[in-house]
Amino acid sequence: MTSLLRGCLRALTMLALSLLCVLPTAWAEENVGVDLMAQLQQFKDGSFDDKARIVAALESSGDERAIAILKSLLAGVLYYRKDDERVVIVKESDDAYQLTDVLNGESLGEAERRDVKKIPINNALRGQLRGALARLSLSHKNPAVRLEAVKEIIKDIDADSVPLLREALTKETDDKVLEAMRTGVAMMDVGSDDKAVRLTAIENLGDTLLPEARQHLQALVEPGGVSDADIRFAAAQALAQIESRRQVYDFLETVFFGLSLGSVLLLAAIGLAITFGVMGVINMAHGELMMLGAYTTYVVQLLMPNHIEYSLLVAVPAAFLVAGLTGIAIERGVIRFLYGRPLETLLATFGISLLLQQAVRSVFSPLNRSVETPAWMSGSLEINSALALTYNRLYIILFSLLVFVALLLILKKTSLGLQVRAVAQNRDMARAMGIRTQWVDALTFGLGSGIAGVAGVALSQLTNVGPNLGQAYIIDSFMVVVFGGVGNLWGTLVGALSLGVVNKFLEPWSGAVLAKILVLIFIILFIQKRPRGLFPQKGRAAEG
Amino acid sequence: MPNKGLLLRILEHDTGGKIFLSLLAVAAVLVSVLNLTVPEASALHVSTYTVTLLGKYLCYALLAVALDLVWGYCGILSLGHAAFFALGGYCMGMYLMRQIGERGVYGNPELPDFMVFLNWTELPWYWFGFDQFWFAMLMVVLVPGVLALVFGWFAFRSRVTGVYLSIITQALTFALMLAFFRNEMGFGGNNGLTDFKEILGFNLQSDATRVGLFLMSALTLAVAYFVARYVVNSKLGRVVVAVRDAEDRARFIGYKVESFKLWIFVFSAMLAGIAGALYVPQVGIINPSEFSPLNSIELVVWVAVGGRGTLYGALLGALLVNFAKTYFTGALPEVWLFALGALFVVVTLFLPHGLVGLLKRRRKKAALKEAPT
After folding, report:
1. Which of B4, B50, B22, B90 is nearest to B312 (CA)?
2. Which of A184, A345, A503, B12 is the most exposed place for a label (fewest CB within 10 A)?
3. What's the pLDDT at A34?
């Protein structure tokens, strides 16, 4: 009941939002609005027959808001205010009633229980409302709404709704909605008396991936399901067809999860590939720089609580700056005294990582902080009912590739990149040619650290933001760099994505923890064979 | 009782070692006597808590000596020594678990409590034999030793060196930690092994047993120190140092560098295992967090603070840092990680040879001043 109510409210807010966007058209519809208003007023004291008439009028009015109004009427949340007789939608919270205007979605504040009165409906009206709602949503302009409506009907399909579907089927143009509608009809036809109809229905069901279709087919094949051998056989075949298609989509889904894990690894490792690969510096504080990036996101969201949608756009450059400057400070303050002593660098940066962790614990708290996900990143892209790609993972894959390309361009096309590569290949010679190596070192380290910060922004959308955030990724990212080959960004890309995919494929077979262990063992064995990774650096510099 | 002449010969030119071992002997006797004979009301009484704490420090010191062998003398910075320590500890823990017998919460004579809890009906094969003390002790050195052998054989043979090796060892201990966290592994999962009752029939809660364990730790540490000193003074030890300073040159001269590295690595892992085995009955618990990479790297800082490549420096560092840790975590818990982090930075930047190196430099300066030029 509450979920229905929430659903109504969500629909209404969405409606309100879309109305806001199309203000000019709303202006033109003012007349209809007045008309609606007048009809709504009759709701409150008309007889049930009157109401039925109004519902029918609303249905045929073609007004966008009709669906929301009817839905809330059905859900029993449509009230009117006693003092000005305004029709409102009510949301109960604690003791008070939250009122929303039914026509424009404007919030009208709270009210006492006695200030409002519910608009009563009876069973006949409920039936009519359901039918009207189904018809309205099935002929809605937006295919997504239509699809949702069909799915709703399919969930518990009955003989009454089939004619509705059949009728809508003739007018439908969208492929996905068509598929769902056919499935719905087929689900009823499977139970028909005519064998030919049944067989076609089974065939239709075999073409879809909706879970309900599978349940219906399963019921046929089960012992005691159906006696006719032909139908049994057809159903079994249809099931096998569904099964094999599902497997393909499951495979694709795993690949997607693997790629998304891989892109997180890529983001985490790519900064490391610069500091470790190009400069030969082991930065154990790399994970903590990622953590700083994640906390920057948190702070940015605290600073702009009303613009969460844009917070990430602000957080990315902010995190780059925060982590990058911290990185430069680390390089200038500690690492530059330790060049040529990699083991000492490792220990010193580990100390720095402890300092950063404890600093964050003192400033924020040892507890995890929650970073909000903007609306445009939540939800998922449904390819079909067996495969849905969540937007946040999709964006992170795109984002990591973007960062990768940007970094590649910086290293290959800018003068800084040229100097960085020169210093990496031969420090003394580069200095002899007039490159300020110290300056290049600081900037390179800053760049690598900044990218760690940016990775932190991405991570804040996937996991909890806490002081230990970085630790979880540091070993994995080192593995990626070692696996891909030091000093080679392409190696890091291939390494990260393949490790991510392999991890996700092992997971269902062996469990998440064991998958991780297996991957670690694999890498340990792998560098036996190729100690310099997948794509070793060539030339004299590699011998060091 | 080993020949006294031999012992002294081993410690020749090792002033630091002599001082430390004498202090250790005096402290061991003094602490035990003050705990067992002086009444509790007396100001001179050393509480059993302190005895156990000191025993714990001694185990850490032994672990530090083990790491100093590979890092200080062979240049292999292992970030996985806590794993060997924990493996030794688990072997001991398994023995102690089997000793509980019917006194567990579920009263099962065969199965430890956590297995009953997981509805296991019989003991996994790798738990067999651990009811025998000698077998458990054998495993304490064999399990870490074999792991080090296999891992080292792979790593050294393919010439994985320097930071690569460090990171791989860290990955190893991380993988082991993840593995031991799993209940299916049959090592108590998250909670590890605990609730021990007795060792070789002695009650683990009694003062006398605690003091006995403390003395055992002191004795083991002394013996291990002698052996380690003997090893580094031997011809093998010298080759190992040569490998540290110029690996390629040692190889070109004709030494089989991999074998030397492997030997010292395995020996060190065994020492770490023994340290773990002594540690577990004193603290009364072993769980997967002992594998955590932070532990291994903290261990590295003990050795770095004391001064690597001296053995006694490692001892000193382990005792000092752990004393500081106990003090800080009690008095100012937030400060400890700051202090530890700063310690890493300060030691690597300003004290590359640790406190021992600082003392040596002082003495050298003083000698230079005194000497007429």
Report:
1. B22
2. B12
3. 54
Q: How far is A342 from chain B (nearest CA, A)?
A: 7
State the DSSP string of A110-160.
EE-GGGEEE----HHHHHHHHHHHHHHHHT-SSHHHHHHHHHHHHHT--TT
Residue A220 scores a pLDDT above 60: yes
Q: Which residue of A has its CA nearest to B163?
A: A343
Nearest residue in chain B measured CA to CA from A514: B179
Please report the number of interchain residue pairs, chain A to chain B, with beta-carbon separation below 8 angstroms.
116
Residue A486: closest CA among chain B residues belongs to which residue? B164
What pLDDT shows up at residue B53?
92
pLDDT value for B302: 92
pLDDT of residue A541: 46
| Ordered strands of the A96-101 beta sheet | A107-111, A96-101, A87-93, A78-81, A116-118
B157 vs A contacts (CB less than 8 Å): 528
Q: Which pair of tokens denotes residue A541?
A: 């510099």
pLDDT at position A22 = 44
Beta strands in B93-182, from DSSP E residues, in sequence order: none
Question: Which residue type sits at A55?
Answer: V
| Mean pLDDT along residues B44-60 | 90
Nearest by CB to residue A347, choosing from B171, B179, B344, is B344
Q: Which domains does chain A have, with CATH numbers?
A: 2-131 (no CATH), 139-227 (no CATH), 249-543 (1.10.3470)
Interface of A with B in 300-359 (CB under 8 A): 334, 337-338, 342-348, 350-355, 357-359
For B193-213, the pLDDT digits (tens) are: 988 888 888 888 888 898 999
Work out the minimum CA distance from B163 to partner chain A, whole angstroms.
6
Contact in structure between A536 and A530 (CB atoms under 8 Å):
yes
Tokens 């011809």 belong to B235
Pairwise CB contact (< 8 Å): B337 & A354 = yes
* Three-state secondary structure readout of A326-357: HHHHHHHHCHHHHCCCHHHHHHHHHHHHHHHH
ipTM of this predicted structure:
0.84
> Chain A partners of B345 at a C-beta cutoff of 8 Å?
334, 348, 351-352, 355
Q: How far apart are CA B364 and CA B370, in angstroms?
A: 10
CB B84 within 8 A of CB B144: yes
Residues B247-302 pLDDT 10s: 889 999 999 999 999 999 999 999 999 999 999 999 999 999 999 888 898 899 89
Mean pLDDT (chain B) is 88
Q: pLDDT at position A21, please? A: 45
Which of B163, B182, B187, B296 is the best residue to mutate to test the A interface, defined by the most A CB atoms within 10 Å of its own CB?
Answer: B163
CA distance A119 to A421: 75
Q: Where are the domains of chain B?
A: 4-370
The predicted structure's pLDDT at residue A241: 84
Q: Choosing among A341, A354, A514, A523, which should be mutated to test the B contact, i.e. which has the most B CBs within 10 A?
A: A354
Alpha carbon distance B265, B9 (integer Å)? 25
pLDDT tens digit string along A79-90? 777 777 777 777
Q: Does A62 touch chain B (CB under 8 A)?
A: no
Residue A107 is classified by DSSP as E
Residues A154-203: tens digit of each pLDDT: 776 777 777 777 777 777 777 777 777 777 777 777 777 777 777 777 77
pTM tops 0.90, yes or no: no
Judge whether A475 is closer than 8 Å to chain B, CB to CB.
yes
Alpha-carbon A141 to chain mean position: 25
pLDDT at residue A324 in the model: 95
Q: Taking an 8 Å Cβ-Cβ cutoff, which residues of chain B contact chain A?
A: 77, 151, 154-155, 157-160, 162-164, 166-168, 170-172, 174-175, 178-179, 181-182, 293, 297, 300-301, 304, 334, 337-338, 340-345, 347-349, 352
